[in-house]
Amino acid sequence: MDGLTYQRRRGEIQTYFDRTAVEAWKRFATEAPLGRIRATVRDGRARMRALMLASLPEDLSGWRVLDAGCGTGAMSIELARRGASVLGIDLAPEIIRFAAETLPDDIGTGRIEFKAGDMLSRTHGEFDAVVAMDSLIHYQMDDAVLALASLARRTRHAIVFTFAPRTPMLAVMHATGRLFPRSDRAPSIVPVRPDAIARDIAQQPELNGWQARRTQRVSHGFYTSQMMEIARP
């Protein structure tokens, strides 16, 4: 996928997470004390991670899984503990270094490979499943669906991803962010309606044969995100 809007957005996200936000994300990955707002985000992300993992088999032995937008590696670690061979991809090299350096001792050698790069690159090979937690929420819906189609070409079973559901609060935050940009602000989240993204997935020719299955929202404090699973029958 080489659309200009995707490329431009990808560049903005890489700059933010590898320069502005890297220390904050390292704190999210530890038990370090956080302020009230960030604490609810950390807890909300943990709930979402558990929800996404529940969409996949408990035993992933023999599966190769892509953790697309892996951040500090929390999802990759849980996938590896289920027996999967995991490739964790993130745009931010500094966050990837942190993920590789902080792997827990119970993760076997070679079980997880972390790389800095584009999650859609064909060079990553094929997978049995893909998880993409909060890694598509900064893209316009058309670009997000095209990204899913790109991943689907190289995925055998399932893609579990999240999007920002359109709620009154998120709509206001999105509008405010666009009206009042600031150099250290995260790239704005793009809220979408669940029925709209499900419709666009169904109408995307390259996702023919894939079906939208389980979807569920996590709303906890300042964290709101919605999971959706698409899978081959």
TrEMBL record:
It comes from the Bacteria. GO terms for biological process: chlorophyll biosynthetic process; methylation. SUPFAM superfamilies: S-adenosyl-L-methionine-dependent methyltransferases. The keyword Lyase does not apply. This is Magnesium protoporphyrin IX methyltransferase. Keywords: Methyltransferase, S-adenosyl-L-methionine, Transferase. Its EC number is 2.1.1.11. Residues 132-232 form the Magnesium-protoporphyrin IX methyltransferase C-terminal domain. One of its GO terms (molecular function) is magnesium protoporphyrin IX methyltransferase activity. The keyword Acyltransferase does not apply. It comes from Mesorhizobium loti R88b.
